């Protein structure tokens, strides 16, 4: 069985998630934006063996700790979509702009495309390319858990910002309605910030995407 735990990290309180197989304790970390000692301490407490890094997108609060963690534990970096390479290249500048610790650029071990999958201890999660917040943003969907790790595409009661370079509001709305809603109203999503919600609840009440 797959399990997960969400840990807010960085001054932006970004929801980093540990995902693991309950029997083997093999684990992936989604969006290690920073506070690596906190993340590693929690992984040790849970008895997890970190094997992969999965990235939804390359903004500093989601990807800032990636290079250091990958180097420290010799982990592959999987995702996001290649359209976010310019954000990865700008991690040092992003960090300086927002007062984050030094962040190094990197090149993912594997870029992700829409419709691909990632695997952890035999469990398969589906990848959807959901641009709009960033051009290379991806989402990880586990039909097994009825969970989706959506980064900054959608929030409880809100949606991702689109005023960053290569952001686009109409593209984001299309990503939500065409790629997220088909996952099912009862799917719980873990956003990049703030509390969890369900796609059904957001379809009914989120002012940005209600009745879409």
Task: Note down, in words, how this protein is organized.
With 212 residues, the protein is of the alpha+beta class. It has helices at 36-46, 60-63, 66-73, 85-89, 91-98, 169-180, 199-205; strands at 2-9, 14-21, 26-30, 49-54, 77-78, 117-120, 123-129, 138-142, 147-151, 154-155, 158-159, 188-191, 197-198. The chain is globular and about 45 Å long. It has one domain (2-205): 4-Layer Sandwich (Metallo-beta-lactamase, Chain A), CATH 3.60.15.10. It contains seven helices and 13 strands. Helices cover 26% and strands 28% of the residues. GO terms for molecular function: hydrolase activity; metal ion binding. Residues 13-193 form the Metallo-beta-lactamase domain. Keywords: Hydrolase, Metal-binding, Zinc.
Strand order of the largest sheet: 6-7-8-9-12-13
Largest sheet: 6 strands, mixed
Helix percentage: 25-40%
User: At CATH's second level, what is the architecture?
Assistant: 4-Layer Sandwich
Poorly predicted runs:
none
Strand percentage, roughly?
25-35%
Domain Metallo-beta-lactamase: 13-193
Keywords: Hydrolase, Metal-binding, Zinc
Pfam families: Lactamase_B
GO molecular function, one term: hydrolase activity
């Amino acid at each position: 069985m797959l399990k997960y735990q969400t840990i807010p990290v960085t001054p932006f309180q970004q929801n980093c998630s540990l995902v693991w197989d309950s029997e083997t304790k093999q684990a992936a970390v989604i969006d290690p934006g920073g506070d690596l000692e906190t993340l590693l301490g929690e992984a040790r407490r849970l008895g997890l063996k970190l094997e992969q890094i999965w990235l939804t997108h390359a903004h500093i609060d989601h990807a800032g700790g990636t290079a250091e963690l990958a180097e420290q534990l010799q982990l592959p970096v999987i995702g996001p979509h290649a359209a976010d390479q310019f954000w990865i290249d700008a991690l040092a500048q992003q960090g300086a702009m927002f007062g984050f610790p030094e962040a190094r650029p990197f090149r993912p071990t594997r870029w992700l495309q829409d419709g691909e999958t990632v695997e952890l201890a035999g469990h398969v999660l589906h990848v959807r390319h959901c641009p709009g917040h960033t051009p290379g943003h991806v989402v990880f969907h586990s039909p097994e858990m009825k969970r989706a790790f959506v980064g900054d595409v959608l929030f409880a009661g809100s949606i991702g910002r689109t005023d960053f370079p290569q952001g686009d509001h109409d593209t984001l709305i299309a990503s939500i309605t065409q790629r997220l809603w088909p996952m099912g109203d009862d799917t719980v999503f873990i956003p990049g910030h703030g509390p969890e919600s369900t796609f059904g609840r957001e379809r009914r009440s989120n002012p940005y995407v209600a009745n879409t």
